Amino acid sequence: MRSMTIKETPNDSPESGVPCSGMGCRVQPAPEAVTPMIHAEGLYKRFGPLEVLKGVSLQVGKGDVIAVIGPSGSGKSTLLRCIAHLETIERGCIDIEGEPMVTTDAQGQCRYVSDAQVRRICRKMGMVFQHFNLFPHLTVLQNLIEAPMTVKGMQRDAIVPRAQTLLRKVGLFDKQDVYPSRLSGGQKQRVAIARALAMEPGILLFDEPTSALDPELTGEVLRTMRELAHERMTMLVVTHEMGFARDVSTRTLFMDGGQVIEAGAPAQIFSAPAHPRTRAFLEHML
């Protein structure tokens, strides 16, 4: 059974389970609930004078596929990058598989765990970027085995069979000795997905994985993501692909202006959105 809730509540609301507005912040799932894969509470982030996240909260259960949609500049990618620790937050709390990565104390001070602990926690997540981020000087196979060897200390003989299995999974086994420059955009992104899976994460984070692709190449990447969803891979996906969000996600989250405006089952969000801003966005996108 998929256990996942996303809600927008005031930071001091009893529903949020934690006070996050200068009164301390510690994520505590309900006792009867299964420990979520991701639990983020009251996240605030600014770049200079621009406040990009304004108290965003979400919870992702094992096997959930959460689609985060919304206009450009709404904070979607920043939310993902904060969860992956590619950006730091000013206030709030993030737990990954029940383990705290960052909390906010009673004085409103944001505190991360040690660097070593952060690195270990982040290894539970794999990130797939908009622009692939493959190493151009490494072959496809070398791109997959580099991180397991350098980060996890695995031997080449142990990781190569796993990497080859993943390349078969994404339909690119015959490209293992090819350099990224010889691949199409869709092939590069499928290699990037396989590379993320090579670290055996419990969670995959996708930051607009098809936005840099030509329309005819988007389908092959979405097919791979659909297969992962069918296998109950836990995924948090920032996307402009409304069809994927509607048909594949277990829940859809709509963001605007650094806040969660509306969240719910995709059938509800796409058929009968409650918020006028959600309705206006979907009318423009669909």
What does this structure look like?
It is a single chain. The protein has 286 residues and is α/β, with parallel strands linked by helices. The chain has helices at 76-83, 115-122, 140-150, 156-169, 185-198, 215-230, 242-247, 266-271, 276-285; strands at residues 38-47, 50-60, 65-69, 91-96, 99-104, 110-112, 125-128, 203-207, 234-238, 251-256, 259-264. The strands form 2 sheets. A 6-stranded mixed β-sheet has the order 7-8-9-3-10-11, sandwiched between helices. Strands 2-1-4-5-6 form a 5-stranded antiparallel β-sheet. A hairpin with a 2-residue loop joins β4 and β5. It is globular, with a radius of gyration of 19 Å. The two termini are 31 Å apart. The relative contact order is 0.16.
| Biggest β-sheet strands, sense, barrel | 6 strands, mixed
Shape: globular
Helix proportion = 25-40%
Task: Encode the helix/strand succession as letters.
Answer: EEEHEEEHEHHHEHEHEEHH
Question: How large is the share of residues in beta strands?
Answer: 15-25%
Strand order of the largest sheet: 7-8-9-3-10-11
Mean pLDDT: 89
**How far apart are the first and last residues' alpha carbons, in Å?**
31 Å
Compact description:
This protein has helices spanning 76-83, 115-122, 140-150, 156-169, 185-198, 215-230, 242-247, 266-271, 276-285; strands at 38-47, 50-60, 65-69, 91-96, 99-104, 110-112, 125-128, 203-207, 234-238, 251-256, 259-264. By secondary structure, the chain is α/β, with parallel strands linked by helices. The chain is globular and about 50 Å long.
